[in-house]
């Protein structure tokens, strides 16, 4: 058996959106909206997306990648305050491998005529299968997808 390991990391991404906190929160809360922006790679096929957006609720996203590999997100909502914050825990698997287990906090703040979103993720990385930089980059891609979903121009 190969050597097993766990590493820990954390990152925060702040981003301003032209949308109101309410509209931005809705992009996370509405299952159809979330499905529209939550695929982080081109060529991903959604196999399953279940979302029970409530405290104690569960979300499962299963995608098939371009090479046929299955990607799985399995999350649980711990705290939800409408239009202000979402706190959830989740695991990420690719094929038979568990990449990470995480706690994420998303906060929505009024910012002029738009909103500032503050996303913080605390992670346990298993067996060197993913890095903090990989996850941060993937998360930034997701935030670009949210901006496109909200019909916002990419930042300059």
Molecular structure report:
Helix content is 22%, strand content 49%. By secondary structure, the protein is α+β, with helices and mostly antiparallel strands. It has a single domain (6-149), classed as Alpha-D-Glucose-1,6-Bisphosphate, Chain A, domain 4. Strands 1-7-6-5-4-3-2 form a seven-stranded antiparallel beta sheet. Helix 1 packs across helix 2. The longest helix has 18 residues, at 132-149.
Q: What brief labels describe this structure?
A:
alpha+beta, 156 residues, globular, seven-stranded antiparallel sheet, Alpha-D-Glucose-1,6-Bisphosphate, Chain A, domain 4
How is this fold's topology laid out?
Blueprint: E1 6-17, H1 21-29, H2 31-37, E2 45-51, E3 58-64, E4 70-81, E5 85-94, E6 97-111, E7 114-126, H3 132-149
Antiparallel strand pairs: 1-7, 2-3, 3-4, 4-5, 5-6, 6-7
